Hints:
Layout: H1 2-23, E1 31-36, H2 43-55, E2 61-65, H3 73-76, H4 85-90, H5 95-98, E3 100-103, E4 106-109, H6 118-122, H7 125-135, E5 140-144, H8 153-160, E6 163-169, H9 175-186, E7 192-200, E8 208-216, E9 222-228
Parallel strand pairs: 1-5, 1-6, 2-4, 2-5, 6-7
Antiparallel strand pairs: 3-4, 7-8, 8-9
Amino acid sequence: xxxxxxxxxxxxxxxxxxxxxxxxxxxxxxxxxxxxxxxxxxxxxxxxxxxxxxxxxxxxxxxxxxxxxxxxxxxxxxxxxxxxxxxxxxxxxxxxxxxxxxxxxxxxxxxxxxxxxxxxxxxxxxxxxxxxxxxxxxxxxxxxxxxxxxxxxxxxxxxxxxxxxxxxxxxxxxxxxxxxxxxxxxxxxxxxxxxxxxxxxxxxxxxxxxxxxxxxxxxxxxxxxxxxxx
Length: 230
């Protein structure tokens, strides 16, 4: 059963990866913010697995833990977090001194020390310059951020990224909170390319994910819609 669940999960991420690639036909999507409306939606797990999925295409991928308030990527991937993104920006280190290699195509920049001013750091010009520099080295940069409705960090990072994905755990956040999170992002005219509905299909005894896109509907009505990854 565990092997079956794993294969379904891998297929879901492959499908998500393909959807993202097709979303970037007119606009190149090299840097992607992965966020959620509230904590506990599974955004860090999705960000990690999405980065791994892109690396399997023989693409050079960097996963950045930009959740400088409650970082978890280093724990999930069993990496050191002695130095990371915050140290890179504040101490003006060389990225090669801080970025850790997971495999030939997959690198990780952990969060580093928790600073007293996370929003100021991620919203800084130094952060913009860092992303521009890293884009010259990597095919894809996946950025894990805090939840949208908790702090302003994800909005600031979404402005610097090519696209933003929202992770929604089935039965976790109420629809009102999800829509409020979208509104916060849309206020800034960031490129919200879609959402991932996480942990669906539990009643069927399996693991599945859905890729959803968000759009404005007639008469100012908004809805979430998509297709099931079988």
